[in-house]
Amino acid sequence: MDAILQALADPSRRTVLRSLRDGPATVTELAAQLPIARPGVSRHLRVLREAGLVEVEHQAQFRLYRLRPEPLAELDEWLGDYRALWQQRFDALHTEVARGKKQRKGKG
Amino acid sequence: MDAILQALADPSRRTVLRSLRDGPATVTELAAQLPIARPGVSRHLRVLREAGLVEVEHQAQFRLYRLRPEPLAELDEWLGDYRALWQQRFDALHTEVARGKKQRKGKG
DNA sequence: TAGTTACGTAACAAGCAAGGTACATAGATC
DNA sequence: GATCTATGTACCTTGCTTGTTACGTAACTA
Question: Do B40 and B85 fall into the same domain?
């Protein structure tokens, strides 16, 4: 949980994640979309990998980085502990639907 | 969005938020639950306040800090762009529901 | 008014994070 | 084997973050 939020706290890393939503990409491709040099992107990708948010596939001398959404589900679960608090303020009916979802996940 | 994730990245601040789920609290009360001194907690609360995650009520010489869940709803929306990705892996039917919500919110 | 309580902020030290440059490594190509 | 491409890492610098202590301020109490 700590590693996930730590990884998401950096805007460059969030940009990387958003790019990877469109599909896997190499470091060079990702660096082209950021205002920082490749070594910096490599570093960001390491943080993302250690947080489990991306995975690497070795393709010849390339590294294909792919999004791994599972940790975000963990963050979603964490958020769930607070979700009722803001949903109370917006839409009571909506809250019922959300609680149905929560029960299926069996959050503790 | 940046301020929210920045605020949540620190474990001490997440502890503060969790404490505030049980109801409003003073700085001294919050500091008692953390391994850091009151001035540090004051600083953390400032970050949380600037991110909109807490609000203060002046009660005599006390400051009553209260949780403000709205920014977490914003984070939830951000997560929504990724939610379909992990739900695909869990439950295809569920994904349909999520996409319905996304369309209604019209996130770009 | 003097003293106490609760709190914020200023000033300072220590640590970490993020960026860049230089370099090492692995695979493809010739 | 030499060279080019793609990438990771080491090293250095810089700036923010976090924590502490010292101090200033506002409100209650006597």
Answer: no
* Cβ-7 Å neighbors of strand D: A 26-28, 38-39, 41-43, 45-46, 56, 61-63; B 6, 9-10, 12-13, 35-37, 39-40, 43-44, 47, 60-61
Sign (positive/negative) of CA torsion A74, B78, A24, A15? negative
The reply to whether A85 Cβ lies less than 7 angstroms from strand C is: no
A48 has a chain B CB within 8 A of its CB: no
pTM of the model: 0.82
pLDDT (tens digit per residue) in B10-49: 999 999 999 999 999 999 999 999 999 999 999 999 999 9
Same domain, B88 and B38: no
B63 in the same domain as B18: yes
Do B30 and B45 touch, CB atoms closer than 8 A? yes
**Tokens read off for B22:** 């049980």
Bridging pattern class, strands A62-67 and A54-59:
antiparallel
* Residues near A18 by beta carbon (within 8 Å), at least 6 away in sequence: B81
